[in-house]
Amino acid sequence: MTVEEAQHFLTALEAAPLQWRAFFTLAIYSGLRRGELLGLEWKDIQFDNCVLTVARAYNYTPENGSYTDTLKTSGSARSMKLPSAVFDMLRAHRVAQAETRLAMGDQWRDSGRVFTGVNGQPMHPNAPYNWLQRFCKRHELPFYGIHQFRHLNATLQITAGTDVKTVAQNLGHSTPATTLNIYAHTFQETRARALENVVDILAPKATKARHA
After folding, report:
1. How buried is 106 (Cβ within 10 angstroms: 0-12 exposed, 13-18 middle, 19+ buried)?
2. Rounded distance, CA 127 to CA 33, Å?
3. DSSP H or E stretch at residue 3
4. Per-residue pLDDT tens for 184-195?
5. What tens digit of pLDDT does each residue of 132-178 get?
6. pLDDT surpasses 80 at 27
7. Could you give the C-alpha distances from 199 to 100, 120, 193, 205, 212, in angstroms and in order?
8. Does the structure show a pLDDT above 80 at 196?
9. What are 78's strand-pairing partners?
10. Which residue(s) pair with 67 in the sheet?
């Protein structure tokens, strides 16, 4: 997904139901894995300081069905500070969820999860993929799957000049070496641009020196 495609996606997303706007906006800005997003509980969201804590995952396998799981690696347990606009959307989603809970009465099954099914139980892990596929088709957007948002987040961090250790921590990789292996090409392009910037900065000075 390119930056332009991400911008078009976010524009189209503005008309989507609030829960899906919150889910995919958070996916882009946090880089969380799908299971980590689905494992989020409201107690993991600190609205006062805009910090989100990743403590569990919610996954699916044909053998086990849907289940709450431990995180992928020891480095996956992390806290991150995100833009306040993301938390504003999460706050609005929490209000809407509370209204749904009141309307459903004893039919609501409180799981404490941020993203739920219609009755409050944890959302099925396949639901975001299926919804996104229909959404992209309806809006004539390219469909790359959910993990592409994680790659987009990583690419944006690297392009912005974020050091590899910080990128690894934000993504929940076990070591920076994992990040380097996965995004080697992006790091190489960023380093090349950095060296070109050095040339651009020094070239005018060198030209002036020759004409002095």
Report:
1. exposed
2. 14
3. helix 3-13
4. 888 777 767 766
5. 999 999 999 999 999 999 999 999 998 888 888 999 999 999 889 98
6. yes
7. 58, 57, 10, 10, 20
8. no
9. 54
10. 59
